[in-house]
Known about the structure:
Layout: E1 6-10, E2 13-19, E3 26-33, E4 36-42, H1 44-59, E5 88-100, E6 105-112, E7 123-127, H2 129-144
Bound molecules: zinc ion (ZN).
Amino acid sequence: MADAPIDxxxxxxxxxxxxxxxxxxxxxxxxxxxxGTAWLWLEKEELQVLGMTIEQMLGGLxxxxxxxxxxxxxxxxxxxxxxxxxxxxxxxxxLAMGYEETADLFVLLVHEIDVxxxxxxxxRCLVSRRQLRALAQQISTVCAAGRPRCPLCGVVLGxxxxxxxxx
Length: 167
Ligand SMILES: [Zn+2]
């Protein structure tokens, strides 16, 4: 990759997707706008950390009711494999996020896995609060999709479960 960061500017689309069969799934972020599309491959754990980071960042900011999503985010498309391979595609090493107060936009700084994490990011893009909130919801849906659910209450099972339906 070039030394200068790819600056995507404001994104029109930011999705979390899981591909493949349960147990062998791979995960990626799809970032797109008029400049093009980038596939950012990452581990499920990294995706979960990103989801938690987003929740924390948004939780620490005042809520603007006008920015609440009016409808739940659409699930990642089922025909994602039909999409053309984008010009930008790499495996994520480090993900950092910042907040630009003046623009009320969040900066996503993505380092490719072999790039110095303390150096310039490989890709930089701007995302809105609404996009981040939708992304965090998508991440939790995508990450939970491969795990078993309690047949009684539908909660994702990760260990011992005291089912409220049995009380
Ligand atoms: Zn249950």
